[in-house]
């Protein structure tokens, strides 16, 4: 009987410690998120007040190896971006029920329903960089390039480890970045607010 009580107490202590560790992890994540948001807002204010005109500071495209389209201005660059897509892992999940009814010796009638679904997970499809221009958001990668004009963009979500760009039609684009640049995020949000 004593062992049951001791094991019960140990289980409760283990659960309490696990809950505290989870709360600490969530608190750190919340703190990082608020610090990143503060940095982005600070960068926005700096960009808006530093220039005397209503235009954002323009970068020299040749310095970063970008060839802009006609009358396009480069505003920000985020290196180390990875394009993420929800893709099949090659594994399948099955489920369903069936009934087997004996008709006579050696003969059975089988009826059932089921489903087969593929498992999906986030997978990196291309690595490269993100560029913000006054006309589009551009992803330049070794395998794949993509250009999303501002008229195609419905919303931009800033994440702690990247960006999600919601398009007006089609699936959203998710880009993961090891260390997101607050200035890049600020330019991205400012350009979105100007096109709405």
What does this protein look like?
The chain has three helices and seven strands. With 196 residues, the protein is an alpha+beta fold. It has a seven-stranded antiparallel sheet. Strand 3 (136-141) and strand 4 form a beta hairpin. Helix 1 crosses helix 3. It is flat and about 85 Å long. The protein starts with a helix and ends with a helix. The mean pLDDT is 84.
Index terms:
flat; 2 domains; 196 residues; 44% strand; PH-domain like; seven-stranded antiparallel β-sheet; 34% helix; alpha+beta; 7 strands; single chain
Radius of gyration: 26 Å
Strand content: 35-45%
**Assembly category:** single chain
| Intertermini distance | 69 Å
Give the CATH H-level superfamily of the largest domain.
Answer: Pleckstrin-homology domain (PH domain)/Phosphotyrosine-binding domain (PTB)
User: Which strand order spans the largest sheet, edge to edge or round the barrel?
Assistant: 4-3-2-1-7-6-5
Under CATH, the topology of the largest domain can be stated as: PH-domain like
Principal-axis shape: flat
Which segments are poorly predicted (pLDDT under 50) over 5 or more consecutive residues?
none
The share of residues in helices is: 25-40%
CATH architectural arrangement of the largest domain = Roll
Quick recap:
With 196 residues, the chain is of the alpha+beta class.
Protein topology:
Blueprint: H1 2-50, H2 61-64, E1 74-104, E2 107-133, E3 136-141, E4 145-149, E5 153-159, E6 162-167, E7 173-177, H3 182-195
Antiparallel strand pairs: 1-2, 1-7, 2-3, 3-4, 5-6, 6-7
